[in-house]
Specification:
With 382 residues, the chain is mainly alpha-helical. It has one domain. Helix content is 47%, strand content 2%. It is built from 15 helices and 4 strands. The strands form 2 sheets. It has a two-stranded antiparallel ribbon with strand order 1-4. Strands 2-3 form a two-stranded parallel ribbon. Helix 2 crosses helix 7 and helix 4 packs antiparallel against helix 5. The protein is globular and about 55 Å long.
Amino acid sequence: MTDEKLETTEVVGSEPTNGFRVPVKRILSEKDMDLFKNSITKTELLGFVKDLNHAVTGITNDAEISGVAPERAVSRIVEILEKVTELIDAHPAADQTSRFGKPEFRDLYDDIQRHSSQWIKEIVETDEKYCDGKDGNDSLVQELATYFNESWGNRQRIDYGSGHELNFLCFLYCLKSLQLIVESEYTAVVVKIFVLYLRIMRRIQNTYWLEPAGSHGVWGLDDYHFLPFLFGSSQLSTHKHLRPMSIHDPDIIEMYHKKYMYLGCIKFINDVKTASLRWHSPLIDDISGVKKWSKVNEGMLKMYNAEVLGKLPIMQHFMFGSLLPAPAGVSPESEHSASEDDHGHVHIPNTWADCCGIKVPSAIAASEMDISGGLRRAIPFD
């Protein structure tokens, strides 16, 4: 995929002289979705996903990755993610009997937002062309920080879904567009950065009982994530012995869940939902019948394209800036796009519950509580 900066075909409002700007939501209708589906922006973003997916074929989470210098952006991102873990320590969540998210998450979110601009400025300054000591990089930092901040979930609803995960992907894509991340570092981007991000998000989900952002999870995969199933099936695609059916073997899951993202996801689901996969995750159960991981990976890529990048309930939250420009003809910025109360989108008939119409209790919370409301471990998922 090319590293050339995409040309913006439409500009809304005032634009900084250097071209960077705070991303805004622009997809409000099926017409906008059709324009996005045929846009260069969508093609380039999906191409980035494909390149990352290919970069971890046969690579385990604990593989030794060489060639990433400490001063490179990849190393700085890892340092920033470790700082996020320190902020989690600084905002412990209180015990509660509600099945819904814990309000202490908002304190964590606010703290990440307070620090993110300075953190990202340090990433940007890993490239000498941004090390002029002036304030001209502020709009670039704010553009990147918008995606980074929205990677951790929704502050108001205390939920998380594949759209938030997509924001983290957009953050990485923007760094690639700036050539702060290069193709030779893609393996490290997945196994060093994304794996760490996933680990942190699992901790946040467990600590603050984040609700799934939608009534169906990610179409029967995981309540929160999609990309670890895609990247994880690529990791497993060259394995000589493990097969998709292996996800039903507890010993294999216990032995390999730290090495392969896909198996790590299965362990997370098994820990939270104690009934069988066939009952609460039928799609995963069906996929386990596929003979080869390579076929699973091909299907996951098609599914990500169709069910995440191709669905209005998710993509109406997508934000366009200078590095991910909006295609010509899409709706102008909504006047409510920054409003937490209005959520910055419209509800489409028969799909509204898939984005925010119904609060969905956290399965993590269910696994921590007994029927009377007291805390415990491991009850059957309900």
